[in-house]
Structure formats: structure tokens, C-alpha cells
Design brief:
single chain; 292 residues; alpha/beta
Length: 292
């Protein structure tokens, strides 16, 4: 049973989300964050200062008592922490990460912590939205009872756990996050360079433009570090951005040098790509536009 947990980076948005849900599930939680507990850490959670990459005696003692250690920290910190954690965790404890990129951390665990149960979780949503009805990608590096229990716990919070391997996760994240964010930011850069003020566009914007503007506003209002990690840290992200640029270039070639029949063929190609999911996404768009 997971009775005690340490959430490293628990004062951040993702760490605070896990802290709150673990506490709500009856787990004793210690938050480790050198920045201090902040307002996001509930008073029922214990706070301990310290650097997870340089485990001192008080931190080692706390880690040694934990059934679960969650790393809600940037990728370089998480990777650097693995060797020290391998020696501090008790037998049977579970190491979990919340990184948006999985391959480097999974390699570090296999090299430095081969006997430690480990699972990577990536909530595919902004922390403020909560787990209910949302997907969480799960990369199980080392199986074990605690790994299974954590996944069941996440599902009890209302999330849908989707198990993938580390390389598959990074490919999916590159398309679902890096490519998507790049398209939104590219749209924003194009608008900013168009000479049309956003204030002039809003009163006449049709639903697709209104939706894109809403996505742009959400991204640029977020934490830059999060979106930077999605673009920079994922080894598959550069390829995703290239396919986006290639898609725009192909569309321009068709419109400027092709025919309406060529354009119609491209729409048919995209309908075929969506396949059985076409109706699902079309209906989701209708519901979204009904609220804009």
C-alpha cells in the first residue's frame, strides 16, 4: 500500500496537483522544494527543503521512509537525481516522474536504478483542469506492485491511463504537444506579422479563428518553461515541426500552382487519415463552436 509519498517539486503546478490528490487519497505527503512550500502546498503536507540532486541526511531519511517518490521537476534535474535516489529508496518503493519527455529518464533508471520500480506519468492537460476525464500517458520502466497501485490510484482520480513505451510516448507527445503548440504559436506569429490588430479581428472572427485565438491566448499565458521543454527537450519535436512546415508548404503549392481538384484530393486524403475518428472529432468541433 502507498501510505507515504515524497513529491519533489511539490510547490509547482504539476507537483501540487499530485500532492493534493495523494492527500485526498489518504497518503501522507512530504513536499520537497527548495523554493519553499508556497501557497499551492496544502497545510496538511509536510515541507522539507533540499536539493534532490544532492541528497543530504534529512532528505535521505525522508526518502527512505517513502513508498512513493514523485519527481515533478525539469528533465535535467530528474535525470541527475536518479543515482542518488537509487541508494536512498527502500526496497519495494516506487519512483515516478511527471516529465513531458521520457526516453532519457527511462535510460537513467535502467542504468542507475535497475532494481527500483519506476513509472513515468505525463498528464496530457494543464494541471488546473484536474484529472477527471483526462488522459494520462504512463511509461512503466520497471514493473511491480507499487507501479500497478499508482496507476490504479490515478484512474480512481477519474483519469484514463494510456500505457505506452518511452519511445512511443515521445513520438506521440511530439505530435500531440510539440506540433500542436508549434501550429498555435506559428499562427500567432503570422497574425502578429499581418498588420491586423487582434482587437480588430475579434469582433469579426469566425469560430475557427476564435478557437485558434483562444488557444494562442492560453499558450502565451502559460509558463514558458513548460512549453520550452515540450519543444526543446523532446528528441522527436524537430521532426514534428518540419512536418508542420512541409504541410504548410504543400498547401501553398496546391493553392498557388495546383487546381481545385488537387485541393479536393487533399481534403479526401485527410478524411482518410482520420478514418473512423472523423465523426468523433467533427462532433467535438460542433460542440466547441456551439459555445464560442
Amino acid at each position: 500500500m502507498i501510505g507515504r509519498a515524497v513529491v519533489v517539486g511539490g510547490a509547482g503546478a504539476v507537483g501540487a496537483l499530485f500532492t493534493q490528490r495523494l492527500l485526498g487519497s489518504g497518503v501522507e505527503v512530504t513536499v520537497v522544494d527548495p523554493a519553499g512550500p508556497g501557497q499551492s502546498v496544502p497545510p496538511s503536507a509536510r515541507h522539507l527543503g533540499g536539493d534532490i540532486t544532492t541528497v543530504d541526511a534529512p532528505l535521505a531519511e525522508e526518502l527512505g521512509r517513502a513508498d512513493l517518490v514523485v519527481l515533478a521537476v525539469p528533465e535535467p534535474v530528474a535525470v541527475a537525481a536518479v543515482p542518488g535516489l537509487a541508494g536512498a529508496l527502500r526496497p519495494g518503493a516506487l519512483l515516478a516522474d511527471t516529465l513531458s519527455v521520457k526516453q532519457a529518464f527511462a535510460r537513467a533508471v535502467r542504468v542507475h536504478a535497475p532494481g527500483v520500480q519506476a513509472v513515468g506519468l505525463n498528464p496530457m492537460f494543464a494541471p488546473a483542469l484536474g484529472f477527471a476525464g483526462r488522459p494520462v500517458a504512463a511509461v512503466v520502466v520497471h514493473e511491480g506492485p507499487a507501479a500497478g497501485e499508482l496507476l490504479e490510484l490515478v484512474e480512481s482520480w477519474g483519469a484514463t491511463v494510456v500505457r505506452v513505451d518511452a519511445a512511443g510516448h515521445d513520438r506521440l507527445a511530439a505530435v500531440g504537444q510539440a506540433l500542436t503548440h508549434a501550429a498555435v504559436l506559428g499562427f500567432g506569429l503570422a497574425l502578429a506579422g499581418s498588420g491586423v490588430p487582434a482587437a480588430d479581428l475579434r469582433p469579426v472572427a469566425p469560430p475557427p479563428a476564435t478557437t485558434m485565438l483562444a488557444l494562442l491566448a492560453r499558450v502565451v499565458s502559460g509558463t514558458p518553461e513548460v512549453y520550452w521543454d515540450v519543444q526543446y527537450a523532446n528528441p522527436e519535436a524537430a521532426g514534428a515541426r518540419k512536418t508542420l512546415a512541409d504541410g504548410i508548404h504543400r498547401l501553398a503549392e496546391i493553392v498557388e500552382r495546383g487546381t481545385e481538384d488537387d485541393f479536393t484530393a487533399v481534403l479526401g486524403e485527410l478524411r482518410a487519415y482520420l478514418g473512423d475518428d472523423l465523426a468523433h472529432h467533427r462532433d467535438a468541433c460542433a460542440r466547441l463552436f456551439a459555445r464560442t
